[in-house]
Amino acid sequence: MPDKYYYLIASLPYLQFDSVPQITIKDFFRECEKDLSQKEYTFLIDSAASGDDPKNLKKDSSFFRAWLEFNREIQDSIFEFRTTKGARLFSAQKDDLKNALEEKNPFLREKAIEKIRWDFLEGEEYKYIFDFNRILLYFLKLRIQARLAGFDEKKGKEKFENACEVNYE
Q1: Burial class (CB within 10 angstroms; exposed 0-12, middle 13-18, buried 19+) of 135
Q2: CA 58/CA 62 separation, integer angstroms
Q3: Helix (H, G, I), strand (E, B), or coil: what is residue 42?
Q4: pTM metric for this prediction
């Protein structure tokens, strides 16, 4: 089983925060399927499908476990902030997260939270150059990029108005 994926990683488009993805997640998986072992490809697909499921902490990737722990810390801090009206934050990124959560505009708030996640991933990149963990890291960054690109103000307003609409019939 190869542990270096020079060609695959070098052929993937560069990802930059707050820009439109140059590759879809579907196309990314298609490229990975060509070069990854069946075990690694299954790991990637399962990790993508199960997301932040705590069962993934048992998976054989120190990077992925670190990501899950970091992301769980962010989620717990968001929950604490919202339920205690900002009284407590557990995250190591307290100042950045507090500033993000105090943002009034929901889009800018989500974008700021995703930037914290992105920065964590960028801080891990130097550890994983051409190995499978770099592919996982790329996927997570691509997922953030795709999520942000999917935000649409007009559709968001429509959903909000439909959710708040009172039907008297």
Answers
A1: buried
A2: 10
A3: helix
A4: 0.84
Domain boundaries, the chain: 62-157
Decide if 75 contacts 52 (C-beta within 8 A). Answer: yes
Whether residue 1 contacts residue 39, with contact meaning beta carbons closer than 8 Å, is answered with: yes
- How far apart CA 148 and CA 20 sit, in angstroms, is 8
Extract the tokens encoding 31: 């490229």
- At 152 the pLDDT is 77
Q: Which of 54-58, 92-96, 156-160 has the lowest mean pLDDT?
A: 54-58
Q: Are 63 and 125 in contact (CB under 8 A)?
A: no
Record the tokens describing residue 154, joined without a space: 């007009």
The DSSP symbol for 37 reads -
Q: Give the mean model confidence (pLDDT) for residues 120-131.
A: 93
Judge residue 131's burial from the number of C-beta atoms within 10 Å of its C-beta, 0-12 exposed, 13-18 middle, 19 or more buried: middle
Residue 123: per-residue pLDDT = 95
Q: Could you tell me how many helices (H) and strands (E) the chain has, helices first?
A: 8, 0
AA identity, residue 133: N
